[in-house]
Amino acid sequence: MSETLKWKIKRFNELSLNELYSCLNLRSQVFVVEQNCVYQDIDGKDQKALHLFGEIENEIVAYARLFNAGDYFENASIGRVVVHSDCRSRKWGHEMMQHAIAGIEKKFKTKSITISAQLYLKRFYESHDFVQTSEMYLEDDIPHIEMKRG
User: Fold this and answer.
1) Of 117, 40, 121, whose CA–CA distance to 77 is shortest?
2) Averaged pLDDT for residues 110-127
3) Residue 76: beta bridge partners?
4) pTM to 2 decimal places
């Protein structure tokens, strides 16, 4: 398998059926099955989001949603950040966050970004200049914190 991801950002209506299926499948594999968390992933917000994904040989292995200010939080935001379990050792999550931040800055013309981060990923997001702005809270029975950048 090649070590270079091909990154794409698309609006919901620009996604092919196969791309949409692959994005939802990856989210389900990690957020529902791997994390053993029954929750409503299809939340009605995909239509508002920009969808950032990384592919290798037409397989989506990394994904995140990007939102404009007011569509999810007061600030622009990044969510559903996920890398396939077989690919995490390659550190593509860091590469994806760089693309996500750059995508928000380019598409939404802002540097202010808010995220709802799983608590165990606090250091990961801090390495991308996010700072914790809330106490821990449970979201779908998983500890989260709000973090902001810019």
Assistant:
1) 117
2) 97
3) 113
4) 0.94
